[in-house]
Specification:
By secondary structure, the chain is of the alpha/beta class. It has one domain. Strands 1, 2, 3, 4, 5, 6, 7 and 8 form an eight-stranded mixed beta sheet that branches. Strand 7 and strand 8 form a beta hairpin.
């Protein structure tokens, strides 16, 4: 039986010692100490409006609408959550959640290119329920490259690489408001 391997002096020089009590720099200070990392959970209750179900199952005068199945819609709504939170934190003028129920609450359009099949557009209404819970109602979904959303409302386009772009419709023109590129 051979000797057990020894730690060489070269390897000892490469081992980094982390001092958890050291003061280091962060975004606000050059002398700060991390004392806690806390994770908060945010819930999105996803609902489908009857209008969406009729379009998905029966279509309209043009026939059944393909490419708007429930699983795909759910995945895109879940994926868009972090983008909506980012924009609402970064931009003072943007909010995705309605706090009151009115006759016609502002809606958000979530859009994504579907690999050569055109853009999928989901029109959804978001409502605040509590500090960490939101209700999302999918009003409708359709495949259309030049989808127009209502004046004063926003569109979040999710790109294939995980980035996104926030647009706003103002007086019939679509303006780029911000981009998520992290």
């Amino acid at each position: 039986m051979g000797k057990r391997p020894r730690i060489s002096k070269q390897l000892i020089g490469e081992i980094a010692v982390v001092d958890v009590f050291a003061f280091t720099n962060n975004k606000s200070s050059e002398n700060a100490r991390r004392v806690l990392t806390n994770v908060e959970k945010i819930e999105f209750d996803i609902w489908f409006d009857k209008h969406y179900y009729i379009r998905e199952q029966h279509g309209d005068n043009d026939g059944k609408r393909y490419g708007i199945d429930r699983d795909l819609i759910q995945k895109l709504i879940v994926c868009s959550a972090k983008h909506l939170l980012f924009y609402s934190i970064k931009l003072k003028s943007f909010t995705f959640a309605n706090f009151e129920v009115s006759i016609r609450n502002p809606r958000i359009t979530i859009t994504s290119e579907m690999y050569g099949e055109g853009k999928l557009n989901i029109v959804a209404e978001y409502h605040y329920l509590s500090i960490n819970r939101y209700e999302v109602t999918v009003i409708t979904a359709l495949r259309k490259d030049n989808f127009r959303f209502n004046d004063g409302e926003y569109q979040v386009e999710i790109h294939k690489d995980g980035t996104s772009t926030l647009y706003k419709s103002e007086r019939g023109k679509i303006k780029v408001i911000e981009e998520y590129t992290y």
